[in-house]
């Protein structure tokens, strides 16, 4: 019956009309994530991008410039309103209970960059950007349980009731998106976002809709969990996809990279889960226990030790690590806010009034393990100078010949 209702709704005038019907029935857009790899969105979700017909009229350049100015002013007003609300929010650094779950961040993978420790060891880090994160909506466990099938599995689990907090990242042009997609951002009072991510949050660490999220939500030395889609390799053979050895290269014709026989006796069928050539990658993976070694507060960039799933430019979900030995003991709840630290508004200052230290380009926080290039690499003391007056032990010792 559900399929018939969906098919009848999608066969209307447009797909946006069907999306509006689903939006009116549910009250919000349920952009759920598939448990398996899906290359196309599910048919019952309303469309996100606006479909512009070919015979649509073109706007004049004057009208386009006016629309751009209006969009910029609305974005600045929404960001200022969210910033003022965050300053009034009661935020404190407290001891986080074992059962508490904080909200996470929606980040973008920039690439990988090496860092050096004080001992001279080289560690490879992943650079993640926090691009204009805002809380879009907060759904209670009861509403989530009634509205979606995912909520029936996650709203009330073994850890207790969980709220679904939707976080948006990356401000984008609202004219590209449908009315149904823009309404959720208008209700929260935030600009239209390009990416969305959902997190399970307990009631004691619940943010409000429109709350801006900062990179300082995490601290240097903290361990986090990164979830994202792996690199999409497309259709690959059995040797690349599963690491098979292949067949002999000599006295074979076009079969030295094939998987060979798949079984023709017994039931004479291919059982589900058989390792065969097919689509490789683009699946949800989670890497836990990654240490944060550096945070750039000005550029909203987080340096994480190790690698995370996904290619450069992919979107990931970053949240607190739940391992007992790497769990966050104390931190800002529900999230970091400007009230925790006195920040000078450089936007109100002229370029001549902004003074940047010569040895520091950005406001950054480093781990005590990392070597900072603003500090001297070799330090000589008086003891080292006295020790240097002796014999040079780096050279061979030459015996003296008695005459």
UniProtKB/TrEMBL annotation:
Coiled coil: none annotated. The keyword Ribosomal protein applies. InterPro entries: Ribosomal_uL3, Ribosomal_uL3_bac/org-type, Transl_B-barrel_sf. The keyword DNA repair does not apply. Pfam families: Ribosomal_L3. One of its GO terms (molecular function) is structural constituent of ribosome. It comes from the Eukaryota. One of its GO terms (cellular component) is mitochondrial large ribosomal subunit. Keywords: Ribonucleoprotein, Ribosomal protein. One of its GO terms (biological process) is translation. PANTHER family: 50S RIBOSOMAL PROTEIN L3, LARGE RIBOSOMAL SUBUNIT PROTEIN UL3M. Belongs to the universal ribosomal protein uL3 family. This is Large ribosomal subunit protein uL3m.
């Amino acid at each position: 019956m559900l399929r018939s209702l969906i098919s009848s709704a999608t066969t209307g005038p447009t797909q946006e009309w069907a999306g509006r019907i689903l939006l009116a029935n549910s009250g919000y857009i349920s952009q759920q994530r598939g448990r398996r790899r899906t290359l196309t969105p599910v048919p019952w979700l309303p469309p996100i991008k606006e479909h512009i017909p070919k015979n649509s009229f073109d706007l004049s350049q004057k009208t386009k410039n006016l629309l751009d100015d209006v969009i910029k002013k609305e974005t600045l007003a929404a960001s200022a309103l969210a910033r003022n609300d965050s300053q009034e929010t009661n935020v404190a650094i407290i001891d986080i209970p074992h059962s508490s779950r904080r909200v996470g961040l929606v980040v973008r993978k920039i690439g990988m960059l090496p860092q050096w420790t004080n001992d001279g060891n080289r560690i490879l880090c992943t650079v993640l950007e926090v691009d204009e994160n805002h809380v879009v909506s907060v759904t209670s466990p009861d509403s989530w349980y009634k509205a979606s099938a995912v909520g029936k599995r996650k709203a009330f689990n073994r850890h207790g009731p969980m709220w679904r907090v939707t976080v948006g990242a990356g401000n984008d042009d609202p004219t590209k998106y449908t009315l149904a997609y823009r309404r959720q951002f208008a209700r929260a009072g935030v600009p239209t976002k390009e990416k969305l991510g959902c997190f399970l949050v307990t009631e004691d660490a619940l943010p409000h809709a429109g709350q801006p999220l900062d990179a300082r939500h995490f601290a240097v030395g903290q361990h986090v969990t990164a979830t994202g889609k792996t690199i999409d390799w497309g259709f690959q053979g059995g040797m690349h996809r599963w690491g098979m050895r292949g067949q002999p290269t000599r006295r074979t014709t076009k079969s030295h990279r094939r998987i060979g026989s798949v079984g023709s006796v017994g039931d004479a069928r291919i059982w589900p889960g058989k390792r065969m050539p097919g689509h490789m990658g683009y699946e949800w993976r989670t890497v836990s226990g990654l240490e944060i070694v550096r945070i750039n507060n000005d550029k909203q960039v987080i340096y994480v030790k190790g690698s995370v799933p996904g290619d450069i430019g992919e979107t990931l979900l970053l949240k607190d690590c739940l391992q007992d030995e790497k769990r966050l003991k104390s931190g800002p709840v529900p999230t970091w806010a400007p009230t925790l630290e006195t920040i000078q508004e450089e936007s109100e200052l002229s370029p001549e009034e902004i003074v940047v230290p010569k040895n520091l380009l950005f406001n950054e926080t480093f781990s005590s393990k990392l070597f900072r290039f603003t500090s001297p690499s070799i330090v000589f003391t008086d003891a080292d100078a006295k020790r240097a007056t002796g014999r040079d032990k780096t050279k061979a010792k030459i015996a003296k010949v008695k005459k």
